[in-house]
Amino acid sequence: MALVRRKFGAHLDAAAKTTLASQRAYPSVAAMRNPLTRSIIRRVAEGDWLATLDQIDFHYSMENISIGGVPCVSYRAQGAKADAPLILYLHGGGFVCGSARVNASTVLPSCHLSGCEAIAVDYSLTPEAVYPTQLDEIEAVYRALLAGGRSADQIVVIGDSAGGALTLSSLYRWRAAGLSLPAGFVLLSPVLDSRAESDTHQTLRGRDPLFSANSAENCTQCFQLYAGDADINDPLVSPLAGDPAGLPPALLHAGTREVLLGDSARFSEKARLAGVDVTLQVYDGMFHLFHQHWRLSQAKSAHRDIAEFIARTTAASVGAIADMRPTIYPVEFARFGG
């Protein structure tokens, strides 16, 4: 694929340039409202995300399970350890697309590097189900994990894109309900502001390979679709409006090529001022959810960072983090799914 239509920083390698050039822009929310086009868009988008599993070069398995009456998928990657902390994963997809299986490449490498099992919640999609259905399902899984003997201080929640909003909103709900909060949480390219007021919606307008020039309008419409009859400014819908005081340690990742970078920057500063142990890691030249592209050196670095965060927040042994350097296996022999 020709790369002439996009300019790149000199430090980006060929793999990053090729991956950037190949990204397909997300459709408008208007197209998602139409049931006829929605099914087509879901197939196309989910096909793109599933294809990134081809880059995984280590053994892994996925198993359908039910926790708290909610469908979930368990991920186990090469090097999984029975006594390792647990990852609770909330996938992205604008509340409208994706699934626990379709988005697995976002978290599988972190499982591999940390030795952790991940439980991915297959929450209901919008507009077939709207707020607070998704938060109810996620909370049911979390409560069942705690009731089943999982210690909160051995759980780290990871949410990407819209899953980042669900992660932060869930933490607000659990805090209000008096539940023990997890050891930490990770937000990957999160969308957190229903009003889409971050400056990067303007400064990166037309430069984000995945979000169109009217990204702010699309983000707001996405939240409106998810919220149903609820107020989109409610912190449980638009978590950037909430109070992060008292939340556990947080790690945020974003790229310099995504319009949602401002959401991460704004929340990180708000959390810091509220006394939260928060780290924002920005990857130069990277795009929305580059974590799915395991062949990229930046993705490997990002997943290593997540594994180190898990070790730090759960006080896991550093030796449990698989030396932080994954063993590479031939792709044609190594991949398998349950």
Characterise this structure.
The longest helix is centred in the C-terminal third of the chain and has 18 residues, at 297-314. Mean pLDDT is 91; it is low at 317-338. The chain has one domain: Rossmann fold. The chain has 338 residues and is an alpha/beta fold. The radius of gyration is 18 Å and the shape is globular. The chain is 36% helix and 14% strand. The protein starts with 13 loop residues before the first helix and ends with a helix.
Helices and strands in order:
Layout (H helix, E strand, L loop, with lengths): L13 H9 L6 H5 L1 H17 L8 E8 L2 E8 L8 E5 L17 H7 L2 E5 L11 H15 L7 E6 L1 H16 L6 E5 L11 H4 L11 H13 L22 E6 L5 H13 L4 E6 L13 H18 L16 H4 L4
Parallel strand pairs: 3-4, 3-5, 5-6, 6-7, 7-8
Antiparallel strand pairs: 1-2, 2-4
Helix pairs in contact: 4-10, 5-6
> In the CATH hierarchy, what is the class?
Alpha Beta
Q: How many structural domains are formed by the residues?
A: 1
The overall strand count is 8
Quaternary form: single chain
Distance between the termini: 33 Å
Integer average pLDDT: 91
The biggest beta sheet reads: 8 strands, mixed
The ordered string of helix (H) and strand (E) elements is: HHHEEEHEHEHEHHEHEHH
The name CATH uses for the topology is Rossmann fold
The percentage of residues in β strands lies in 5-15%
Named CATH architecture: 3-Layer(aba) Sandwich
As a percent range, the share of helical residues equals 25-40%
Low-pLDDT stretches are 317-338
**Strand line-up across the major sheet:** 1-2-4-3-5-6-7-8
CATH homolog superfamily: Alpha/Beta hydrolase fold, catalytic domain
Q: Overall 3D geometry?
A: globular
Helices, by number, come to: 11
Computed Rg: 18 Å
The chain-level structural class is alpha/beta
